[in-house]
């Protein structure tokens, strides 16, 4: 949340080790979303209503500029879940270090119709046209994921609505729901309670079964308190994802200081628990993203917050460089293990795009990336970046595009391939070739890519942020100054690097 000039990030954290358990609400503050000051935990198990755990939730700023947190408390060894609140002990403390959990908790207890062990992660509240507050709590019943709606006049006494705000069959438990308005007219964010014209709503859920983030764009019927996804949005596993890689349990907030909506997510580790214990930490927060509705109205667009650019240092540039089949060029002169790379590729023709195999229609993009990897020569693509590469290419992580011809249109596939990212060969390491399709008009015969490379993270944004993929990788050779960066083309159609700008990135300050 943003409060009196300070950003507050609360996150699930185990102070006793780099494994899951002993979960508290850790608390860090920042004035720019990039440099952070870690503080003591804001909320931790201490009362009868959260004795067995303080799980996820959200912050809301109440009238009179008063922040309040709603969170899930675990009350017994059976993981029975209730919804609690906490308030700052001292509003004049600029960092709001201390939080109080009043004795009238819990505010919400599951009734008989709810699975009380799958009942968690209350959202930021919004105010309806009747002046009453509303929140959602994620849940599931008979494999049907749902967001249960509660209403309150005073934020203290909550009543369950007759119907969920939305529900979908065969989707499993819905975690970390997020519900917010987006503008059809501009890229500015909207306050969660905004009720003006020219808006759509977005419902985002984290699906426990797949461990991916899905969202739909649709209409919020404020009279019936129902959300209806547009017919261009699919509920569930075949739907749109916020990020097609290692990104989960995200939460957005409205930033009134710059009129934007910002998304923060979590990228967990892909190596072994033993490695986490050796490192002494597990899980990172990817760079905060501004998000808005694409002009088509069909999907969200995400882009790293502008403040990230304050970390840019040395810059190198390439322009109008042609790459023929099998060619690559090294990007030199910056620290490529910690870099920000923006590149625009162009091509003279779409004629060599490969036919899209109809049998792939039921596959996820990730599966097609595995079939049509970077080493499988294509027509138009694969082309893109080879990041965190060792000198002789024993290790590398690729981010690339492939263009297919599918009946009457072109399909753009974006992949982030970690399968050769490390020489470590633990069988439990997760090294997939993540992938997503990019809904982009190729009339100008161009595709852009931005990759944020940060030692064990490659966070990529295709076509200006229409498709995002985060990969976690653990090279053994391609580390620090031993890492290399290349642009490559493995298609028969020549590709032109119209512009490539790459920067060394400074370390963010952790006070």
TrEMBL record:
Record Pfam families: Glyco_hydro_32C, Glyco_hydro_32N
Record-linked SMART domains: Glyco_32 (SM00640)
GO terms of biological process kind: carbohydrate metabolic process
The Glycosyl hydrolase family 32 N-terminal domain, residue ranges: 1-304
UniProt keyword Signal, yes or no: yes
Record key words, sorted: Glycosidase, Hydrolase, Signal
Segments forming domain Glycosyl hydrolase family 32 C-terminal: 307-504
UniProt-recorded Gene Ontology molecular function terms: hydrolase activity, hydrolyzing O-glycosyl compounds
InterPro entries per the UniProt record, alphabetical: ConA-like_dom_sf (IPR013320), Fructan_Metab_Enzymes (IPR050551), Glyco_hydro_32 (IPR001362), Glyco_hydro_32_AS (IPR018053), Glyco_hydro_32_C (IPR013189), Glyco_hydro_32_N (IPR013148), Glyco_hydro_beta-prop_sf (IPR023296)
Family: Belongs to the glycosyl hydrolase 32 family.
PANTHER family in the record: BETA-FRUCTOFURANOSIDASE, INSOLUBLE ISOENZYME CWINV1-RELATED
Self-association and partners: May be present in two forms, a 70 kDa monomer and a heterodimer of the 30 kDa and 38 kDa subunits. The ratio of the levels of the two forms within cells appears to be regulated developmentally.
Protein name: Beta-fructofuranosidase, insoluble isoenzyme 1-like
Organism: Nicotiana sylvestris
């Amino acid at each position: 949340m943003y409060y009196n000039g300070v950003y507050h990030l609360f996150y699930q954290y185990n102070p006793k080790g780099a494994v899951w358990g002993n979960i508290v609400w850790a608390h860090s503050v920042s004035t720019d979303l990039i440099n952070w000051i870690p503080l003591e935990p804001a909320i931790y198990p201490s009362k009868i209503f959260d004795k067995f755990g303080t799980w996820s939730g959200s912050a809301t700023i109440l009238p009179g500029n008063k922040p309040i947190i709603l969170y899930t408390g675990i009350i017994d060894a059976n993981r029975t879940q209730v919804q609690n609140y906490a308030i700052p002990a001292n509003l004049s403390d600029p960092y709001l270090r201390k939080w109080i959990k009043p004795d009238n908790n819990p505010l919400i207890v599951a009734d008989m119709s709810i699975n009380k062990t799958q009942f968690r992660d209350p959202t930021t509240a919004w105010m309806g046209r009747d002046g009453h507050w509303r929140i959602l709590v994620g849940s599931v019943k008979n494999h049907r994921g749902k967001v249960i709606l509660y209403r309150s006049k005073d934020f203290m006494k909550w009543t369950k609505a007759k119907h969920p705000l939305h529900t979908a069959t065969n989707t499993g438990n819905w975690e970390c729901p997020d519900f917010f308005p987006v503008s059809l007219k501009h890229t500015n964010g909207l306050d969660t309670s905004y009720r003006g014209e020219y808006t759509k709503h977005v419902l985002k859920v984290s699906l426990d079964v797949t461990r991916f983030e899905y969202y739909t764009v649709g209409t919020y019927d404020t009279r019936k308190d129902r959300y209806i996804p547009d017919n261009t949005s699919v509920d569930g596993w075949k739907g749109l994802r916020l990020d097609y890689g290692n990104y989960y349990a995200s939460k957005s907030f409205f930033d009134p200081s710059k009129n934007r909506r910002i998304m923060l997510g979590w990228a967990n580790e892909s190596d072994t628990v033993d490695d986490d214990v050796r490192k002494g930490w597990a899980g990172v927060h990817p760079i905060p993203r501004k998000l808005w509705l694409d002009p088509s109205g069909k999907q969200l667009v995400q882009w790293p917050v502008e403040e990230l650019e304050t970390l840019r240092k040395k810059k190198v540039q390439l322009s109008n460089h042609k790459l023929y089949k099998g060619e690559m060029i090294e990007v030199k002169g910056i620290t490529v293990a910690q870099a920000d790379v923006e590149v625009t590729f162009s091509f003279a023709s779409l004629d060599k795009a490969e036919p899209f195999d109809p049998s792939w229609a039921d596959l996820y993009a990730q599966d097609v990336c595995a079939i049509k990897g970077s080493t499988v020569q294509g027509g138009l693509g694969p082309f893109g970046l080879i990041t965190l590469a060792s000198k002789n290419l024993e290790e590398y992580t690729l981010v690339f595009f492939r263009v297919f011809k599918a009946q009457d249109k072109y399909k753009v596939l974006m992949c982030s391939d970690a399968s050769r990212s490390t020489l470590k060969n633990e069988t439990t390491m997760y090294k997939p070739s993540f992938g997503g399709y990019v809904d982009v008009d190729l009339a100008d015969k161009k595709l852009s890519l931005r990759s944020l490379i940060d030692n064990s993270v490659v966070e990529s944004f295709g076509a200006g942020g229409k498709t995002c993929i985060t990969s976690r990788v653990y090279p053994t050779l391609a580390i620090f100054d031993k890492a290399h960066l290349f642009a490559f083309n493995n298609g028969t159609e020549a590709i032109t690097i119209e512009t490539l700008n790459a920067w060394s990135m400074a370390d963010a300050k952790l006070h």
